[in-house]
């Protein structure tokens, strides 16, 4: 398994936060389960609490195997388990990237409609992500610190400019149509919990208070998720239900004097966040490949994965059946439970058994 440089927990926090924000800005009525988006404030809160439940096995693993991530801990359980973990995480992060990039290309083709063919944007994003993944985790961590600052500044500018356009009458009573809306929105927010799996792979490469970084990430994404809902509902009201990307529509309304159409800020936030998310996932996939493959395969794992993501996105966008599948809210959430909690739990139990056997043999 290749050696990689260390990053600080703040840099890991920045990587995870930008990744989660990239998902949160794409929420709409279809993904959140219906029409009364006010109920989704509770969906966001429940997902926030679920993060801590899902992360319990990871907390135990970090305490048990402080200097080895999930991959090394899995290797100690057995080669068969390492293969299961590596293959699962490769496919998991690959599907996440396909979903994120498909959503962005769908937005370009159906909402933004640039003159340039949308597949060119896909190719450029993937090329930049592949280059960043080659530069290593340390370079991505430094970039993430700057990008997170820019993302927060962009969201803050949009929020401030929209403050006077918020109307309290747009907020409907909670559970006006029952609890279905609240329950339907939870899978979308749980999809953002893929960052727990990120920390499971990378925690051994971070220096600092790992538990604190998790708490800060979860809290920040919760606040951002609530803020995005508040802006969309407060500004657009029921009109939110008719929008494919309500936050983009909300950003087009924001203005201050000569500063018009803050949708460009929204697109920049999405673009840089998407680039960093894919670069991070490419790095994690390369670590998984490293753990189970010979050196000759490791060298080409990043470009091959990038090529797969690029071609896969273009094919998905061109096929309506695949597009509907990848744009659905339930694609990632069930697998997130396994990636965030199940495999770390098995690793904890397996290593505990190994430790007891070693103690008995000693």
Summarize the structure.
This protein is mainly alpha-helical. It is 76% helix and 1% strand.
Biggest beta sheet summary: 2 strands, parallel
Order of helices and strands: EHHHHHHHHHHEHHHHHH
Helical region count? 16
Our estimate of the beta-strand percent is under 5%
* Biggest sheet strand line-up: 1-2
How would you characterize the overall build of this protein?
- 48% of the residues are buried.
- 76% of the residues lie in helices and 1% in strands.
- It has helices at 9-24, 29-32, 40-54, 56-64, 70-77, 79-112, 118-135, 137-162, 180-191, 194-202, 210-236, 246-253, 263-292, 295-317, 320-326, 333-361, and strands at residues 7-8, 206-207.
- It has 16 helices and two strands.
- The radius of gyration is 21 Å and the shape is globular.
- With 362 residues, it is an all-alpha fold.
- A two-stranded parallel ribbon has the order 1-2.
- The model has no long low-confidence stretch (mean pLDDT 87).
């Amino acid at each position: 398994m290749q050696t990689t440089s260390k990053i600080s927990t703040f840099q890991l926090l920045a990587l995870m936060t930008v990744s989660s924000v990239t998902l949160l800005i794409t929420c709409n009525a279809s993904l959140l389960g219906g029409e009364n988006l006010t109920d989704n404030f509770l969906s966001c809160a429940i997902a926030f609490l679920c993060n801590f439940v899902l992360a319990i096995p990871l907390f135990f693993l970090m305490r048990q195997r402080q200097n080895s991530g999930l991959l090394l801990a899995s290797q100690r359980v057995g080669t068969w388990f390492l293969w299961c973990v590596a293959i699962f995480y490769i496919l998991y992060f690959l599907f996440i990237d396909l979903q994120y990039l498909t959503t962005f290309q769908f937005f370009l083709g159906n909402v933004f409609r640039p003159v340039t063919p949308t597949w060119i944007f896909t190719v450029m994003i993937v090329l930049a992500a592949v280059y960043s993944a080659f530069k290593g985790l340390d370079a991505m961590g430094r970039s993430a610190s700057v990008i997170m600052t820019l993302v927060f500044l962009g969201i803050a500018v949009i929020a401030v400019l929209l403050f006077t356009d918020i109307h309290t009458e747009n907020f409907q009573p909670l559970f006006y149509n029952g609890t279905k809306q609240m329950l339907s929105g939870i899978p979308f927010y749980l999809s953002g919990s893929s960052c727990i799996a990120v920390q499971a792979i990378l925690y051994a490469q971070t220096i600092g208070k790992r538990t604190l970084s998790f708490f800060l990430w979860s809290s920040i994404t919760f606040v951002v998720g609530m803020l995005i809902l508040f802006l969309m509902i407060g500004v657009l009201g029921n009109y939110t239900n008719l929008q494919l990307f309500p936050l983009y529509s909300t950003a087009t309304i924001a203005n201050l004097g000569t500063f018009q159409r803050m949708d460009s800020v929204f697109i920049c936030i999405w673009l840089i966040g998407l680039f960093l998310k894919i670069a991070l996932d490419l790095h994690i996939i390369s670590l998984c490949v490293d753990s189970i493959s010979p050196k000759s395969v490791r060298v080409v794992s990043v470009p091959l994965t990038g090529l797969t993501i690029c071609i896969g996105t273009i094919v998905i966008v061109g096929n309506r059946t695949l597009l509907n599948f990848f744009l659905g809210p339930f694609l990632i959430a069930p697998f997130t439970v396994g990636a965030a909690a199940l495999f770390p739990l098995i690793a904890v139990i397996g290593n505990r058994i190994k430790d007891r056997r070693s103690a008995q043999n000693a």
